[in-house]
Amino acid sequence: MKKVLLLSLIGISMAACQISDAGVSRKSVVKQTNTLEKNSDNLLTEEEIKDDNALVLPEDIKKNIPIDMQYAVFLQLVCNLIRNEYVKNMSEGCITEKAIAGLLSSLDLHSSYLNEKAFTSLKEQTDGEFGGIGIEMIVDEGLVRVISPIDDTPAYKAGLKSGDLIIYIDDECINGITADEAVSKLRGKPKSKVKLKIKRGDKAPFDVVMTRDIIKVQSVKAEILDNIGYIRISTFDKNTSKDIKKFIEANTKLCGIVLDVRNNPGGLLDEAVAVSNIFLKGGKIVSTRGRTKDNTKEFFADDKDLTNGLPLVVLINNGTASAPEIMAGALRDNKRAITVGVRSFGKGSVQKVIPLSEKTAIRLTIAKHYTPSGECIQANGISPDIEADYAMIKKSENQFVIREEFFNNALDVKKDAKYKKVTDAQNKKSLDELGNKKSGEKTEEEDHELLYRKMPLKERVEKDYQLNKAFDVIKTIGKYKNIIGEQNEKK
Questions:
Q1: Is 347 noted as a catalytic residue in this protein?
Q2: pLDDT classification of 73: cutoffs 50, 70, 90
Q3: Do the Cβ atoms of 282 and 300 come closer than 8 Å?
Q4: Same domain (yes/no): 84, 158
Q5: Poorest-confidence range of 35-44, 147-156, 362-371, 376-385?
Q6: Which of 180, 243, 333, 464 is catalytic?
Q7: Number of domains the chain is built from
Q8: DSSP string, 89-107
Q9: Which member of 30, 88, 174, 390 has the lowest number of beta carbons within 10 Å of its beta carbon?
Q10: What is the spatial distance between Cα 362 and Cα 100, in angstroms, rounded to a whole number?
Q11: Is 322 among the residues known to form the active site?
C-alpha cells in the first residue's frame, strides 16, 4: 500500500510524492520475524541483512530533491515505519514528541524538549518555589548526575554531593532515563518519601532515603563576622539582587564582603547581571555570542558601585555553574574582586525557552557566554586568582571532581584538554583510595561536612579552608589600604 507524503509538513516546498510506507515490504518483515525465531541470540545473519530490508528513497525523489533535504524525507520514512511496524501502537502526537525530544537531547547537554511536567517545573523553579528533593542535576549517559544540592533542601540535608550518580530511584533502575522522566520521578507530594541508590566515585553504591518537601529556595543568606559581610548565594532567582541590596544598605560599616557561590548551580541571567552591577562602577559584565544578531548581546554596569569599592572576595568551586560563573568572571576581569577556590564547572552556554503551546516548550542552546576579557566560559569555567582546595583545614585527598567538560555531549570539549588531563589524574587517585574502603563506610571528610553545615559562621571560618582563605584575603586588603592611607597622610 502506498501513501501520499506531503513534504510541506516537514518544511519542504514541493509537490506531493508517492512513496511506500517506510520503503519496507511485508515480505521483508515476515522474513525478519522468522529469523528472530530461529536465532537464539536474536541477531540477523549477514545474508539476511540485504537491501530489500533497507529504507530506500524512490528514484524520482532522489533526482528532484537536494541531498540535504533527503534527510527530512528519511525522517518521515522512519516515522511511518514506527507508526506501522513498531510493536506498540503510537499516535502521531507521541511519535512527533519523541522525535523532537530525541533531536534536541542529541545536540548538547542543555537543549531539551519540555513536556507539560517539565515546563511547569521550570517555571516553578525560576519563581523560587517548587516541590521535590532540591538538586540541580543533569542526565549523564542515561543516569542522573548531581551538579549540586540546593541549600537547606532534603538533598542537602541528606549529604548529597556534586558528582554523585543516582542509579536507582525507589528500587527501579533508571538506566536510559531522560531528563524529563528523572524530574518526574524525583518530584512528588510533600512528605512523601523517595529512596535513591547513589554511586559516589569508586565507593560501593549506598541508599539514601529522603522526604520530599516544598522547596522554598532562599537564594541569599547573609551574616557578619569581624565586620566582614558573608553573603551565601545558593541560586540566582528573581529575588537575589534585591536581597543583596537590602543587606548592603542595612550594613554601611562593613570592611569587606565575601560572596560565596560554591555549589551554586545557576539561575537567571538577568539576576547574575544585576548582582554584578551592584559591585561595579562601569565596565562590561558579560557578552553572549550566537550565530544571529538577536542572540549576540553585551551587558554593561552602570556608574554606581553601591559598596563604594569595598574589598570583595568571590568563593568558587567545581559546583559553581552558569549564572555565578558570569558574576565571578565579571568581578574578576574588572579587577573588582579576588576569586578564591578551584576552577568552576564551565557551563557557559545560553538556553532560550521557546513555548510550543501553553503547556510545552523547547529549550535550545543559542549562544555562549564570554567574560569581559573575552574568555569563553563554556567547558573552561572560571579559574580563581587564588587556588584553594576544598578541605576542612587539611587538604582532602579523595575529593571527586565533576565539571561540564567531562560529559560526552558537552559543547567545545577537547579530549586532550589540559584541564581534563590534570583532573583525570586527580580523580583516578580519588577512585583508587575510595576503592579500598568498605561498602557504606563514611570517610572522615564526609562526617565533618555534615557537621559543618550546622555550625555557626565563626566555626565554619575556622574549619573551612576556602572560607578561611577568603576572610584572610579581605583582612589583608584592609590592612594594605590602611598602610597606604597612612603613607599618603604623611606625604
A1: yes
A2: confident
A3: yes
A4: no
A5: 35-44
A6: 333
A7: 3
A8: ---HHHHHHHHHHHHHHTT
A9: 88
A10: 9
A11: yes
Q: Do the bridges between strand 135-140 and strand 143-149 make them parallel or antiparallel, or are there none, so unpaired?
A: antiparallel
Judge if 326 and 391 occupy the same domain: yes
Q: Which entry of 161, 284, 347, 368 is annotated as an active-site residue?
A: 347
**Does the residue 59 lie in any domain?**
yes
Q: Are residues 283 and 159 in the same domain?
A: no
Under DSSP, the state recorded for 25 is -
CB atoms under 10 Å from CB of 185, counted, come to: 18
Is the confidence at residue 185, as pLDDT, over 80? yes
Position 84 in a domain: yes
C-alpha–C-alpha distance, residues 467 and 477, integer Å = 16
- 147-169 pLDDT per residue, tens: 888 888 999 999 998 889 999 99
The pLDDT tens digits of the residues spanning 455-477 come to 899 999 998 999 999 999 999 99
**pLDDT beyond 60 at 13:** no
Convert 326-346 to b/e letters by CB count within 10 Å (16 or more is b). bbbbbbbbbebbbbbbbbbbb
Residues 429, 334, single domain; the answer is yes
Q: Which residue has the cell 557504606?
A: 440
Say whether both 144 and 188 belong to one domain.
Answer: yes
- Please determine, for residue 206, whether its predicted confidence score (pLDDT) is greater than 90: yes
How many other C-beta atoms lie within 10 A of the C-beta of residue 444?
A: 10
Is 416 in the same domain as 276? yes
For residue range 17-30, list pLDDT tens digits in order. Answer: 333 333 333 333 33
Q: Catalytic pick from 112, 148, 276, 322? A: 322
Distance CA(171)–CA(245), nearest Å, equals 45
| Weakest mean pLDDT among 54-68, 146-160, 179-193, 325-339 | 54-68
Contact indicator for 99, 75 with CB cutoff of 8 Å: yes
84 and 149 within one domain: no
Range of the domain at 370: 217-481
- DSSP code string of 139-155: EETTEEEEEEEPTTSHH
Q: Which percentage of the chain shows pLDDT scores above 70? A: 75
- Cα 134 to Cα 370: distance, rounded to the nearest angstrom: 29
On the question of pLDDT at 327 being above 90, the answer is: yes
Q: How many residues does the chain have?
A: 491
Averaged confidence pLDDT in the chain: 81
Question: Are 322 and 372 in the same domain?
Answer: yes
Residue 152 lies in a domain: yes
CA–CA dist 77, 66 (Å, integer): 17
- Burial level of 477, CB count in 10 A (0-12/13-18/19+)? middle
